[in-house]
Each structure stands twice: as C-alpha cells, then as structure tokens.
Amino acid sequence: MLNLLWELVRKDLRIFVADRKSVMISFVTPVVLACFIGYLYQSTGKPSEPKRVSVLLVDQDKSEFTKDLIERLDKSGAFDVKSSSEAAAKRKVSHGDVALAIVIPSGFSDKAIQAMSQHSDPPSYRFLVDPSKAIEVGMAKGSIMRVTMQALTKQVYGNMAPIEDSQMPFKISEESQAAPNSADTSPCAHAFAGMGMQGLLFWAIESAMTLLREKKLGLWKRLRSSPVSPTMFLLGKGISSMIRAFVILCVVFGMGFLVFHFQIMPTVGNYVGFGLIALSASLMAATFGLFVAALGRTEEQSRGLSILAVLGMCMLGGAWFPLSFLPQFMQTLSKAVPISWAVDGFDGMIWRNGGFGDALTACAVLVGFSLLFGLVALKRIRWEPEAA
Amino acid sequence: MLEVVGIRKSFGDTVAVKDASFSVSDGACYGLLGPNGAGKTTVISIITGTMNADGGRVMLDGELVSKDNPGPKRKIGYVPQDIALFGEISAHDNLRFFGSLYGLYGQHLLNRIEYSLELTGLTDRASEPVSHYSGGMKRRLNIAAALLHEPELVILDEPTVGVDPQSRNAIFDALENLTSRGKTILYTTHYMEEVERLCQRVAIMDHGSVIAEETLTGMKQLVPRQNEVFVELDRSLTVPLGVLPGIVSQSLDGTTLTLEVIDLNRDLPRALLALSDMGLTYVSVRTQESSLEQVFLHLTGRLLRD
Fold first, then answer.
1. Is residue B295 a part of any domain in this protein?
2. ipTM more than 0.90?
C-alpha cells in the first residue's frame, strides 16, 4: 500500500523535474512577483524615504506668502514641487505626467489675509487634477490646507500668533484635466484599458499554447511538407490572431461604453485614433503570442515564461495601479513596455484630451513592438522536429 | 521517380540516419520496413522536405528536394504518422484548408474534397467536427488530406497504427485504388503483412541504415530455409519415420508431419512420393513460405517488433 503510494508520488515528482527549465520557471515566477510587490511595499513604507508626490506650482501671485508656501511644501517631504506655466501644467496633467498642478491666482495672499482677519470672501486655489490619480490629489489637498494655514498665520500674526478655529481663509477649486463629462468615468475607462490589455495578452499566451499543441500533434510537420513558406504560415497565424484580438478588445470596450458609460471623445480624430490604437494593440498581442510560441520548446516552459512576462508588463505598464505608485526608475522603465503605450493611448482617446497625433505615436510604438516580436518569432520558431 | 542517395541525419549526438539509399520507380508501391526507431520517419521527413539531411540527396523527378524548394513538394502527398488534423473543425473544413495549401480553390477544390471523402468512406460524416470521429476515421481523413492535390507520389508514414480491422481494410482498399490509377506510393510500417499485401519492392531499415533492398519475392529468398510444409497423416505412426529425400529437416507431432524444404517445386514431390512408398496416406498438405519477419530475423538476428 505504502509502496504503491510512494510510486504514485514518485512518478509525479519525476515528471515534474524532467523538464528542468519548466521547474526553474515555476520557482522564478512567484519569486520575481513577490520581490516586485515586496519592493514596492518596502520602498513606500520606509519612514526615512517617504514617497514624494510631484506637484507643479503655477505662481501667479508671486508674493512673500507664496515663497513661504513653496518652502513649506518642500520641507514637508511630501511633495516634489516644480514651478510651471499654466499652459505647461495643463498639458502635463492632461498627459498624466503629474497628478496635479496648483494654480495660485494673482492677489491670492492679500485676499486670504483679508479673509483671515476680516472674514471677507476667501480666495480659491485652482487644482488642475488628473482624475485617475485621486489618491495623490487627496493627499495634496490635506497637505496644502495645513501648510497654507501655517504660512498665512505667519503672515498675519507672526510666528507667535495662535491659529483660531474660524472660517478657512481660502478655498480649493478642482479643475479636472480630463475631457469634458469624463471626470467621473475616467478611472473606470483606465481600468478597462489596463485590464483589457492584460486579458488580451493572457489570451495571446493561450493562442501560443494552441500553436505548440499543434506542433506536438504533428500538424507543423504536415504544414511544412506543403509548398507554403514558414513566413506565410506565421503571417496567416498573425493576422487571424490579430482579428480575434481586435474583436476581444471591441467587446471589452463595448461593455465599458454600455455599462459604465464612458465614451471616446467625440471627434473624428479620436474615433479614428481609438480604432488605430485598438488595431495596433491587437497586432502587438498577436505577435506576442507568436513570440511566446517561438521561445519555448514545450508548452510548460512557454506558459511559465510568458505568464511571468505578462504579469511583469501589466505591473510596469500601469494596468494594475497608476504608474505614479511606482518608483521613478520603474516609471521610466514602463516606456519599454507595450502595455503602457496601449493604455496611455486608449486613455488619451477616451478622457485624457489626447489628439490624433498622440494616437499615432502610440500606434507607432505598438507596431514597433509587433515588428520586434514578429521578427524574433520568424527567426526563432523551430519548425523542424528536434529528435527522430 | 524518387531517388534517395546516401542520406544522413543526426540530432545532437544521436545518429538517426547513417546511410539510406533506395529508389522508387513510377507507379510502384514501395515498402520501407523497419522496427520503431530504425530511422524511417526521419528519412520520410527528409523526402517530404520537412527537414534537410546532413548529407546525401533526395531527387524527385530529377529535382532536388529540400525544405526551401516548393517545386517537388507540390508532387508529394504526405500522410504523417500522427493524426495531423484540426479536431475542432469539420472534415470538410480540414480538407478545404489542406487543399488551399496546394493552390486548390473554388469548384475544383470542392470536387477534390468530394472525391477524397468518397475514396476514404467519410462522405456521410464530412460536416462533423473531427474530434467526434473514431480513431480509424481520423486515420482515413489523415490520408484523404494528402490526396486532395492529386500528388504523383503518396508517402504514408505508419498510416494504420492503432486502427481497427475495418478501417485498416478501408485504408488498403483506398491505397490499392491509388496504385491501380498509376500513383506511386512509399509506405513505411513495421507491420510486415501490410508490406506483403501492398508492395512490390521493399527496403529494410535498421539502426539508421538500409540493410536490404529487393523485390518482395527476392527479399524472401534471402532466407536460406524458406518453406515449411505441414502434412496431415491419416493415422499416428507406431514405428519411427525414416528420413525423407530432399528434406532439410523433419519432425512428427501426432499425425502432423512438419517438413522444411528449400525448393517447393523440386523437393516436395519427392518427399510426398517417398511417404506413399512407405505405405503412408496423407489427408492434407499445407505450405507456408518464409515471411519478411523471418527475413528480418535472418538479417539482424532479432525480431522486427523487438
């Protein structure tokens, strides 16, 4: 009985260790993911190195108060403050480069001091915000209120004066830099873009596994005995995969449009741009499938490697959480990940005020990745049997 | 039609084919016989242009066969050892796809699909997904897919593995139909009875080399002791039987006398006459010629299916 049980166990263990690469991948995948997430938690949790939120400051007041305010914001350790013009700030927030820009209107300090001492109408900060980065905006709101009160108190009463708990001497007005009518739905649209791309790449893995199964079944041998070239076979596979991927994306976004009511910004450029990005992203996913099939010898190896690659790309590409959560070097690294270009492209066409030019940039990068994946697949795919 | 000259192929340190040479003439059914692992499938892969040989050459109608030369590939219909079909789609759709690889389109393709389905007896089930088929039906469709483009040379790599007797007969009927229409067939198997039924000429492969190449009759003559004769006597003998003339060996078990003779026409009549002279009466005489199994045993010292 025990012998039988041991033989049953032993057989499975032997099968497991027979494919060494697959064994290695099965350990590497969880280790890499755990390290990545662990690193993020560790780096955000270190008290000595708090994560700073990038903030652009448009100082139209140019007073002693604003100088003091900027100093205090800097010293707070919570912000990385940079001065900017309003136009540049709007552009950067709109593109998602920074979470928010604070516009201090001309005469702000005088009006705030008056409001504090004479209870007149308070002036208002203008927050230009990226609606997909609500956490950073919320943090900034709290901090700016605290720091402003400290700076104003100094201006009005000097360092010794108490702060009365009366009406706030200023207000904050938020101005979403998303497209009109899309501020509420933009986080959802972003999630659809991110998860849609993740789903597409996981589908591409399955597509690659089908290809490897066809190889195992001897179908490749039959195909190669025909007068059709390998390039033609790969092209056929690529196009059929691209069509399927495009349909998947259409269904995913269609569901979002219907159920969550976000929509493409109503210009011809944005509609065409969205379509082109969807096609380019589908092409990228299709060629990624071929790339996966070309790199692994067995289904098990390819599956492990590609799951690791897709999860890594999703994290780095901003599919799971906003890129601003990541350390700066990872944000830079995300530019090397096709998902981030696809997600940014879709965001741009739906709510980020992107134009046709932005769509073309995203398409060019996605097509570039597709070419890279496709060429590697063509070069590396093993059509020939590897044993007698 | 097909000329295989000194081909070699290795996979890493493993030598799959050391030296294989043979030729197949137009309209012949040629058998490539050998045990599993003899190198038959590798030879077939090289002939079909699926892989290139490390050395030697394969010529089809005077044209060099290689992975990148589509010309000869158009003349070959390849039936792989594996069931290389798309299980999710119907037989008709499978055939439509494989036909298109050889440039068949439109009505001509439909006619060819109809013909191939009919030849393999699958017309009634053509619209069903292949995954619903029995093993034998899949094997037959595997063959049909190779016949669509009317190849001049049909290469079958162990096409009857795991097939029920009914499907096996259907496959043989289809192949005999092809040979009667002048198609050339290269047939690999480790079932000697299949070669004996279908082929006129045979090559035997072992350990990556062609160790014999002959007509079927000539191959059987490679075995020195070639014929067994079973003589059924009308009664058991009470005294030992004397030595019969022209016989290699003889043994008696009850009423069954087993004789080994070299030449049936020359030696058997003399032995039967001697039995009559001894006053013995026989009720039946049955002969059995040497098989390819015995030829293989003779050439290699082991059985074909060892």
1. no
2. no
Q: Which amino acid is at A384?
A: E
Do A139 and A53 form a contact (C-beta atoms < 8 A)? Answer: yes
pLDDT digits (tens, 9 = 90+) for B212-242: 888 887 777 776 655 788 889 888 877 777 8
Which CATH entry fits the domain spanning A53-176: 3.40.50.720, 3.40.50.740, 3.40.1710.10, 3.40.50.300? 3.40.1710.10
Residue in chain A closest to B84 (alpha carbons) equals A219
The number of angstroms, rounded, from the C-alpha of A204 to the middle of its chain's C-alpha atoms is 19
- Tens digits of per-residue pLDDT, A127-179? 888 877 777 888 888 888 888 888 888 777 765 555 554 556 777 777 777 77
* Cα atoms in the Cβ-side hemisphere of radius 13 Å centred on B167: 18
Minimal Cα distance from B39: which residue of A? A388
Please judge whether A222 and B98 are an interchain contact, meaning their C-beta atoms are less than 8 angstroms apart: yes
pLDDT in tens, B159-190: 888 788 887 888 888 888 888 888 899 999 88
Structural domain including B284 reads 227-289
Residue B302 lies in a domain: no
Q: How far is CA B292 from CA B28, B29, B33, in A?
A: 19, 16, 9
Q: What is the pLDDT of residue A165?
A: 47
* A378 pLDDT more than 80: yes
Q: How many domains does chain B have?
A: 2
For residue A32, name the pLDDT band (cuts at 50, 70, 90). low
Cα distance between residue A356 and residue A349, in whole Å: 8
Distance CA B175, CA B168 (A): 11
Q: Are B20 and B6 in contact (CB under 8 A)?
A: yes
Contact status, residue A277 vs residue A345, Cβ threshold 8 Å: yes
pLDDT for A48: 46
**Residue of chain A whose Cα is closest to the Cα of B66:** A225
If one compares B147 and B228, the residue with the highest pLDDT of the two is B147
Per-residue confidence band for A18, with pLDDT thresholds at 50, 70 and 90: low
Residues B177 and B279 both lie in one domain: no
pLDDT, tens digit, for every residue of B90-112? Answer: 899 899 888 888 888 889 999 99
Which residues in chain B touch residue A244, judged by CB atoms under 8 angstroms apart? none
Tokens of residue A60, six digits: 């139209």
Final residue of a structural domain among B220, B248, B266: B220
The three-point CA angle A347-A337-A179 to 5° equals 10
Place of tokens 């060996």: B249
A3 band by pLDDT with thresholds 50, 70 and 90: low
Sheet holding B153-157, edge to edge: B63-64, B55-60, B2-11, B14-24, B209-215, B201-206, B29-33, B184-189, B153-157, B76-79
Laid out side by side, the sheet with B256-261 consists of: B249-253, B256-261, B227-233, B282-289
Domain ranges in chain A are 53-176, 186-380
Is residue A29 within 8 Å of residue A315, measured between CB atoms?
no
* Cross-chain CB nearest to B80 (options A218, A383, A384): A218
> What pTM was computed for the model?
0.72
Q: Which residues of A367-380 are buried (b: 16+ CB within 10 A; e: fewer)?
A: bebbeebbeebbee
Residues in contact with A217: Cβ distance below 8 Å, sequence separation at least 6, in sequence order: B82, B83, B84
Tracing tokens 């089908």 back to the chain, one arrives at: A210
Q: Are A291 and A377 in contact (CB under 8 A)?
A: yes
- Which residues pair with residue A254 across a beta bridge? none
Taking the CA of residue B260 and the nearest CA in chain A, the distance in Å comes to 41
B237 and B213, same domain (yes or no) = no
